[in-house]
């Protein structure tokens, strides 16, 4: 059985891309076949796994807007067992170009159906918005993982996201589950982080992952080397916690 997980939060800078890249790479390192789908026009997940944008012939834009087969856009990455559908800045136009198209919310789902059986996990790195690209991602997924930064206003904006999830469940994808809330960028030296953990756990209860991602400078350095943390610095705390997260995700099915 395979699973598709969207990593979503309309807030920027909460750790979506870091989680997509490193969860994907850790699942791959455990021997799972993983497809990372970059659906953010910034394309940070694409460069984070070592794909040069200049070498990209077909990106997710071509798949969504021009009906190019997903298999044509899939590229190998710097990690064994980890493949990716890249995004380039061309995708920035898709949010508007998709508006008048037929079945605009189900395009990603249909495109991935053709390749789904080749992978154990498909991880989708969503953009920081609740527009058509995120709607396509939620419609194509079995579950959504929501990274939340351990900061002031951590819960702000989450009700909009949960509302969008409910609308997708009602109209587009009744099988979509909230797989969990992932606490990220915890600074263990401050009380604030602990307060945020308590607050998020009170609200989401057992939906919060046991693994909490601390701030780790190696995690922020790895993308500029085009490598996930497990290959950039396998002994770092960052590598350890993302491996823990991968094991937790495996346990969930
Ligand atoms: P998003 O995709 O939600 O916008 P990113 O994953 O790109 O967020 O993270 C935002 C910034 O924070 C990036 O520069 C990233 O390298 C850094 N970052 C993310 N997680 C961590 C972490 N656990 N420790 C240190 N830096 C992090
Ligand atoms: Mg991102």
From TrEMBL:
InterPro entries of this UniProt entry? AAA_dom, DNA_Partitioning_ATPase, P-loop_NTPase
What Pfam family does this protein match (any one)? AAA_31
**Top-rank lineage group of the source organism:** Bacteria
Catalytic activity, per the record? ATP + H2O = ADP + phosphate + H(+)
> Which residue numbers delimit the AAA domain?
3-178
Family per similarity comment: Belongs to the ParA family.
The family database entries (PANTHER family) matched by this protein are listed as: P-LOOP CONTAINING NUCLEOSIDE TRIPHOSPHATE HYDROLASE (PTHR13696), PARA FAMILY PROTEIN CT_582 (PTHR13696:SF52)
Could you give the subunit structure recorded for this chain? Dimerizes in the presence of ATP but not ADP; ATP-binding is required for double-stranded (ds)DNA-binding. Interacts with DnaA.
By what name is this protein known? Sporulation initiation inhibitor protein Soj
- The organism named in the record is Cytobacillus horneckiae
């Amino acid at each position: 059985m395979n699973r598709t997980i969207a990593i979503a939060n309309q807030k920027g800078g909460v750790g979506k891309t870091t989680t997509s890249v490193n969860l994907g790479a850790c699942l791959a390192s455990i021997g799972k076949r993983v497809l990372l789908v970059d659906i953010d026009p910034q394309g940070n997940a694409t460069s984070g796994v070592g794909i040069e944008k200049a070498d990209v012939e077909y990106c997710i834009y071509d798949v969504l807007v021009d009906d190019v087969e997903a298999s044509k856009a899939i590229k190998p990455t710097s990690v064994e067992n980890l493949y990716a559908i890249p995004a380039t800045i061309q995708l920035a136009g898709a949010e508007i170009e998709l508006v008048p198209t037929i079945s605009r919310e189900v395009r990603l789902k249909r495109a991935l159906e053709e390749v789904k059986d080749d992978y154990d996990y498909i991880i989708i790195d969503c953009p920081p918005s609740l527009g058509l690209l995120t709607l396509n991602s939620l419609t194509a997924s079995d579950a959504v993982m929501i990274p939340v930064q351990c900061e002031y206003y951590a819960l702000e904006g989450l009700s909009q996201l949960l509302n969008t999830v409910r609308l997708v469940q009602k109209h587009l994808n009744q099988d979509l589950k909230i797989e969990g809330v992932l606490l990220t960028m915890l600074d263990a030296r401050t009380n604030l982080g602990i307060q945020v953990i308590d607050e998020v756990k009170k609200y989401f209860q057992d939906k919060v992952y046991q693994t909490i991602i601390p701030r780790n400078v190696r995690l922020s350095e790895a993308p500029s080397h085009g490598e996930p943390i497990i290959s950039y610095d396998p002994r770092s705390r960052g590598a350890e916690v993302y491996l823990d997260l991968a094991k937790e995700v495996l346990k969930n099915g």
